[in-house]
Amino acid sequence: MEDEGNDGTYGSVPVTSQAATTSTVVGKAKTFAGLSPKEWAFLVVSILNLLAALGFTGYSLWYVVDKDKENTVDFTFAVLLLINIVFCTFYVVHGLFREREFELYAFIAATLVVVVYCITEYAVNVAGHSNPIKLPRLIVSCALALPNIVLAWMVARDFGFLAFRIVGASEALQLMYRQSAAFSTLLKFDFQVGVSFVVLVLEQGVNLTTLEIVTLSVGLPFSFLWLILGWITMRKEIKPLMWIFIVLGLVGPAYVIYKIVMLFENLEEEQSEKLLIYAVIVAGALELLVHVILLIQAVVVYRNFKKGLKERAFDPTEQTSLLVAAGRR
């Protein structure tokens, strides 16, 4: 084991004072005092970005509801933006203070999705509908997205101190902890994409069969419970539950594939409706991709069960310190 130096670092990971971290109900987390200048910059820019997005989205929803009730396309995109803002807020707060590298990567992906939404919505010119907020929102979104993404990437690449505090200096445990963090993030991102897909599909309500409406109504609660099942299984390392999780995970893609195939047969629509159909297809394809990666990562996490990670990272009674971590190495 490489010894701790006297310069306040352990290898390439800075070791700060005890006040830099605190214990929470979900584990160790950074305090405001533990944030570096770079992390503060990321937090400030993210808050500005999210507040701007929330303000524009709120105005867009009000405009459609109050003055443009027939413009269902704009309303749908506004709801999608609102959903992504909620998830982005979680990724920023939880990802930064819990040092979840992959949650910041998910934030980057979600930010890009928001920008694409804004560009797409601005590009759609539905006859007789003109929302004055589209162009300012597009400009502000693009202006804030670039520095936000760059800072998120830089901050995520510097993470490592909290993982060292939690699981110690063991490279094997740190790798398993990182793999579990990736799985946890994929659970949330999969749910985010799934919710967006359902919103897009429900917008086509007049074209849905009764069976599809029932399927979608049950699908969201099922997806949320599936997320909880995966999270509990990961933390408790219950092998039979992981197999149940994987098998149940095959249900969602079946409907997504069915819907994509059906939509390809209905592309002879007017411009606005065609755009919405393409949006559903893209969201469905993204959902399938994320879902497959999630199931693969579930197998990776499953193979790490019973190797000591649960006791070090997920046991609420475990009090990990630098001295204990060094002693067990």
Automatic annotation (TrEMBL):
Keywords: Membrane, Transmembrane, Transmembrane helix. Residues 26-156, 167-296 form the DUF7789 domain. It holds the Pfam family DUF7789. The chain crosses the membrane at residues 40-63, 75-97, 104-123, 135-156, 208-229, 241-264, 276-302. This is Uncharacterized protein LOC106179543 isoform X1. The lineage of its organism: Eukaryota, Metazoa, Spiralia, Lophotrochozoa, Brachiopoda. The gene is LOC106179543.
